[in-house]
Every structure is written in C-alpha cells, then in structure tokens.
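Title: Comparing notes on inverse folding

I've been comparing how different people in this forum approach sequence design from structure. To keep things fair, I'm posting one structure and asking everyone to reply with a full sequence. Here's the target:
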C-alpha cells in the first residue's frame, strides 16, 4: 500500500501518537474507527519527511485528507504505485474485513459498557476527584478494579503502558442516545479508553442535559469540565479528546441552537490557547473561554481545573464571564 508523506513529523505525532525508542509511533487510525486498535504507523524518513501508513487496510487518501485537515498544512504526497485488479480487490477485502471487525468490536463494547454501568456504584469519593479538587456528579460511576476486569476481560493501561490500579472512576461516553464507550481513570490519574468502544462524536456531560440551556460549556477533559461547571453553575460537555472538539460543538449547536456555547481552551507551553480550540470557536462562531488568572496566577500549560486549584472559584467564574462578554 502506498504511504503518505508529511513534512511536519512532530505535529503529526502530537495529534495521533507518541514516539517509541526507535522513533516510530503506533496510533489509532482516524479513518477506520476501530477504537483503540492502533493500526497506524508513523515514522521519519531519511529525507526528513514523515510517513503515515495504515496497516488495517485503509485507503491512504483517507488518512492523508484527515491529517491535512486537522493539521492545517500543505502536504507532499508519495506517488501511489500503479496497482492491478487483484491488488485493488485485496485492498477492498481488507477494508471490508476491517469494517466488519470494527463493528464486532463496537457491539461487544456496548455490551460491556451496559454491564459496567449496571454493576458500578455512584461515586462518593474518588482519589482522582479529590486530587483535582472537584465533587462527584451523578453522571460518573465507580467500580473496584477486579470487578471491572471480570467484565472487560483485560487490564486497561494508560498511554505510557502503566496499568490502572485501585478503584476506577468510570466516565460514560455517549454517542447519540447510546453509551458506546467508557473512559477509565484510577486514583493517580492514569486514564484508558475501553478497547473497541466508539468515541467518534461521543461526549460526557457533567449533568443530565435539559431540553434547553442559556449557556453550555464544551471542553476536553473531565476535570476541566467539572471545575468549569461547578464554579460557574453552567453544564459542561467533555469531548475527552481534542480531536473530537469540532464534532461535539457541531452536535451541541444543532441540539441547542439558542444556547451560548463556550469552548474551554487549554493553554499550551507558550501560554497560548490550543490552536484547535481557537479554530473550532471561530469556525462555529462560539465564545472562547481562556483560563487566565489575575494577580500573577496565570501560568503556561494551564486548563480550567488548574485555574480552579491555583486561583479559586472566583477566577473560573470571571474567566467564563469574560468569554460570554466577547463580541462575535
């Protein structure tokens, strides 16, 4: 299969995966939707370019188009080799096999999610929430690790390969009207998504969403959204991944056309808001919330939970109010 070459290697890794000891990376392919199945390989070429190749049978053009749109870059493409009819059939068969496997994984994941939500408990106290300085909500669940393992049939690990330990916080991910996946968080903050679970267009809400809301907050992380919601009184939606921000904002605008939507941006190492949050806010004409403190409280790489912990409730309220006063 032909590969697609990108000049901006580090940006691609930031978006899809992290380097291993050999400089290569494994990533979830964004086009074939197999949850945590890391079929995409990323590596640097000798000439400095970057190769992204899906071994799950995806057409290289689909991967190319998705990455270019997310990175906002012009790319240089490797010329695809001429293929004969047999090769085209092989690729089509691989795609069908991949799609069928993905569907089986999704069905299995939904069944596991239902079971986990049924046997788990309402959260009274959890180490992660205590560390983040936020209160539990009825939309979160909690389950002992061994009980969880009996349901999902594997030991979840974070992106560094470390296994989750102790009681696990369960964050249900909803796509449409169905819970299709869960994010699992242990007391030390290790996070893992359910293998095979569908997260595209999915979200978690800090509370049951009413038919209409004047203000709706949309952010990436659970702690970010809990801090913003509990300090401001407005409901918040967590996308659980920055790559899902656009889809979820589009969904919320369609569902709540009269609501004022505030996109909660994280600040990067330079102290600037994350570019994807800025882009989505501009494209969908929403308000942009920046976690800026006062009195020397503002730092680089800050999110709304950091603002809450370091600067207090009033700082979060002020930041969100400033966002709502923006002229659009």
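Reply #1:
Here's my take.
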């Amino acid at each position: 299969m032909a590969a697609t070459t990108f000049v901006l290697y580090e940006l691609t890794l930031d978006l899809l995966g992290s380097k291993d000891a050999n400089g290569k990376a494994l990533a979830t392919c964004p086009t074939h939707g197999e949850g945590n199945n890391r079929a995409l390989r990323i590596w640097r070429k000798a000439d400095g370019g970057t190769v992204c190749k899906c071994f799950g049978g995806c057409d290289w053009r689909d991967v190319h188009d998705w990455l270019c749109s997310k990175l906002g870059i012009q790319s240089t493409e490797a010329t695809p080799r001429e293929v004969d009819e047999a090769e085209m059939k092989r690729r089509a068969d691989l795609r069908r096999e991949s799609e069928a496997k993905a569907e089986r994984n999704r069905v299995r994941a939904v069944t596991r999610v239902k079971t986990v939500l049924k046997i788990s408990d309402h959260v009274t106290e959890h180490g992660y929430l205590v560390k983040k300085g936020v209160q539990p909500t009825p939309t979160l669940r909690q389950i002992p690790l061994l009980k969880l393992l009996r349901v999902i049939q594997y030991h979840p690990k974070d992106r560094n390969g470390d296994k989750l330990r102790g009681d696990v916080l369960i964050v249900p991910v909803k796509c449409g009207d169905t819970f299709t996946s869960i994010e699992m968080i242990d007391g030390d903050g290790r996070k893992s998504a359910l293998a095979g679970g569908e997260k595209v267009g999915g979200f978690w809400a800090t509370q049951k969403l009413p038919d209409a809301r004047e203000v709706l907050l949309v952010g990436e992380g659970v702690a970010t959204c809990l801090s913003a919601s509990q300090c401001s009184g407005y409901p918040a939606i967590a996308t659980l991944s920055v790559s899902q921000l656009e889809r979820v904002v589009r969904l919320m605008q369609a569902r709540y056309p009269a609501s004022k939507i505030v996109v909660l941006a994280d600040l990067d190492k330079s102290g600037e808001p994350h570019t994807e949050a800025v882009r989505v806010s501009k494209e969908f004409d929403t308000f942009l919330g920046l976690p800026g403190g006062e009195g020397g409280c503002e730092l680089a790489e800050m999110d709304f939970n950091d603002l809450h912990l370091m600067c207090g409730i009033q700082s979060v309220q002020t930041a969100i109010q400033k966002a709502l006063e923006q002229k659009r």
